[in-house]
Each structure stands twice: as structure tokens, then as C-alpha cells.
Design brief:
Blueprint lengths: L2 H16 L6 H13 L13 E4 L12 E5 L4 H10 L3 E4 L16 H11 L3 E4 L2 H5 L4 H10 L2 E3 L15 E5 L6 E3 L5 E8 L12 E13 H12 L7 E2 L10 E11 L1 H4 L9 E6 L2 H9 L3 E4 L7 H31 L9 H10 L4 E4 L9 E4 L2
Parallel strand pairs: 2-3, 2-14, 3-4, 11-12, 12-13
Antiparallel strand pairs: 1-4, 5-7, 6-15, 8-9, 9-11, 10-13
Amino acid sequence: MNPLFSRLPRLYSTMAASFPASSSPYTRAVVSSMRKLYPESLAEKSFDNTGLLLEAPFNHERRQRNSVLLAIDLTKAVADEAIARKDSVVVAYHPIIFRGLKSLTLNDSQQQSLLRLAQAGISVYSPHTAVDATPGGMADWLCDIVTGAIAPSTDSTPAIQKSSSTQYSQPAFPQPGTVRPASAEPHVRTTIHPSPPPVPEGMESAGMGRLVTFDTPQPLTAVVDRIAQGTGHPGGIPIAIPQSASVDTMKIRTVGVCPGSGSSVLLKAPGGIPDLLFTGELSHHEALAAVERGSVVVALAHSNTERGYLHAVMREKLADAVQKEWEVTRSEGLRTLGDGSQDGTGVVDALQKAYGDAESFVDVSERDRDPYGIMIRHV
């Protein structure tokens, strides 16, 4: 027998004993940062599935880039993008694993993406409703749009591309970009459904949904303009108003906001239904009921109330947090490894190289988009 073969069992058992399976040091720094920014305890655990959903083991023979890819939905296109970029982590807002799995096979497209990512050494983290509830999270970002506290700093008008149709363009999608601070209309902001205690220190306003109450009622058209600019929505804004009303004369004093699907939050507000409901989607009957009571509904399609947050807020916030976390992790890791002695397996050398890499990148997916686009009629 080849002497090398006889040594393999002992070699790998020694390696496993010294270095138990775990994700890469950089991945752990990213996960730690996400948990600090958006505590998992704030997520709606009655239905949600948040946290580290796929933990790819650290492969000392093939190390990923110190980079994070942000997306709303982990589609095949996003998985392909992450694999091509050699990212360490995909932070996918919506959990790709939502209900219990009885198997993982290549026959299911979502399971196939998970298996391919694991094979490539890429982990998946999902924060979902923790981002909705956290102060400064997705719901507060929507409030900033409604009140004019932020404005686009780059052109958010999507490019309209011709199609073979004589009437309509190619489907256009919202084009969210970076934002700048602006002068907000005076208002009071409250949480519709506060998170139950215990709440992390400094996050006392956490909870689902926000209610904006303007000091002075706002023209509906002004609020709609802010929503269109802030979300980069193309072509038009889906809106439902009472049949006896006009967009030119309606005034809005209260706005309820909830990213994604907002019916369970906005239609059950303790103080009654607000003047305007701003969310991603309501069912036909839910929207009809709100309008019949005199309210306005703006529903942009589910993820169009979510994706812009990745560009406007999360990318920079996570990049700063990971950079600080990674510096601490690196210094502790290099100190623990000591003088660089070798273990004969290559693991220590790989860890030294991993901890020695100070770079860190956080980017937003270029392939992530809502399933629904808008074909715009030629003028």
C-alpha cells in the first residue's frame, strides 16, 4: 500500500480534532455584524425564519473573497452572481428556507441554488423581519421617503428600452440608488406594533410598522412624488383612492408604512386605519376595504418597498460594521495562531492568510429584482 494512503486517516482525524468544521473567519465576522445591527430577537418568530440559513464550511484549499453580496431574493441569477464573484456570504433579506425541508435535491431550483452555494463555500444569512422591526431599519427608511427626510443623490430614473412591441417597452424595474439627507416635513413617528420585551438596549422603538403623523396635512400628490423619487419607481405609481375623491384635492395627515406585505400590520393598527397605507402589497379585498373607509393605498409590488434599502442604507451600514468587526477578529486570530508554526495539513497556513487579508467589500446584487416589471406605453 502506498504510505501516503496509510497516513490519510490519521492525518484527517488529527486535522478534524484540531480544527473542527466551521465557516470562514470572515463569514463569522459578517454574521456577528448582522446580528448586532439587526438583532434576531426582533424578528417575527411566529412565522419567520431568520438567521444563518446556510453555513458553508471553511475550505483551506480554496478561500473565498472577503466580500458580501446583498439581495432581497436569492434567485438562481443571484446565486450565479455570488459564485462568479467568489463571495463569502450572501445576505438575502427574504429567507430562501422558509418552511421545513424533507430533502435537498437538484430537482428543486431553490434547493439547487443552496447546494451550489455550499459547494462554492458561500454562506447565506437572512435577516428579514428583524430589518423591518429594528430602529433605522426598512420601515424607518420608508418613513424617511414619505416625509422627505432623504432624497436621491443620483438619477433614479430607470432606463426605458424598446421592445419588438409597437406599443410597449421592455419591462422596466425600479432603479434605487444612493440618497442624501434632505429637509423633512415636521411630523411625529411612532411604532404601530411595538416589539414585546425584552428589547435590546437602545432599540426601544423597535416593532412592526410605523405611523407618520404630519404636523400639517400634506397634499396627496406631494407624498406620491416623494414615494416615486425615493423608490426609483418607473412609469407610474399603483394607487387606490376613494371613488368620490380626487388626487388633486386629497390631504394626508397620517401614513402607515410597512415593507413587503403590510395587511397584518396596517389594517390592525390600534388607532384605526391611516389616511394613506404605503406598502408592497395588499390583496384586492383588503385594498377595497381600506378605500371604502376613505383611505388611500399605495402598493408598489412586494419587494419594491424593500430593495432600495439595500442601496440607501444597509450597504454602507454593514460595510462599516464588518470592517470594524473584521479588524478585531483578525487581530485576535493572528495572535492566537502565534508564530506561524505549521500543522502539516495546510489549515494553519490557510488561516494565517485568511486573517492576514484586511480587505472587506459589501455590494448590492446587480441581478436581484422584483418578479414584476412595468411595460411602459410609447408616447
